[in-house]
Specification:
This protein is of the alpha+beta class and 169 residues long. The protein is built from one helix and nine strands. It has a domain of 105 residues: Sandwich (Immunoglobulin-like), CATH 2.60.40. The strands form two sheets. It has a five-stranded mixed β-sheet, with no helix packed on it. The protein has a four-stranded antiparallel β-sheet with strand order 1-3-7-6, with no helix packed on it.
Length: 169
């Protein structure tokens, strides 16, 4: 069952606030008054990369391929070695998690919204209305505050054409 973005965001904000308090308290205790991650979240890292981004599991879009012509039912298939039970919105603790975006509408699927098609390969089918023409799909990791981890973004541009296989008639 797909959860609304508002419900997931409310849950994540609540969890994120609790984690921020815990993180801030622990950081202050161990780092002599450091204010935790929240105190420097808006400053760019020296390397211009998100902290810890190099340790994130890679993502790769398998389908649709760039330039593909597809029907109106949009399915994205991607690969990652990540344990998606821990990196989606139904994880016990919401931290870094998966986002799937179609034309600027970002969705946060639960692991139950994904179909495993092979080891490390997953399929997600959008239930958004899609009209003929050019479209963009993105798959990426976001942090617990839903900030996109830019280094993880994978993008594919494709075209929806009436009459293609999978098109709603």
């Amino acid at each position: 069952m797909k959860r609304t973005i508002e419900a997931m965001l409310a849950q994540a904000i609540g969890i994120g606030m609790a984690l921020a308090v815990i993180s801030s308290s622990a950081a202050a205790a161990t780092e002599g008054g450091h204010h935790g991650h929240d105190g420097h979240a808006q400053r760019p890292a020296a390397s211009n990369k998100s902290p810890g981004a190099e340790k994130l599991p890679p993502l790769q879009i398998v389908s649709p391929q760039s330039g593909a012509k597809v029907g109106r039912i949009i399915t994205v298939e991607f690969e990652t070695p990540a344990d998606l039970a821990k990196m989606t919105m139904d994880a016990a603790v919401i931290g870094v998690h998966l986002h799937v975006d179609l034309d600027g509408t970002s969705l946060m699927p639960a692991s139950t919204d994904l179909t495993r098609t092979a080891v490390g390969r997953y399929r997600y089918t959008f239930d958004l209305p899609v009209h003929p023409g050019p479209h963009v799909v993105k798959v990426y990791w976001s942090d617990a505050k839903h900030k996109t981890i830019e280094e993880s973004v994978k993008t594919v541009r494709f075209t929806v054409v009436d009459g293609q296989p999978g098109a709603k008639q």
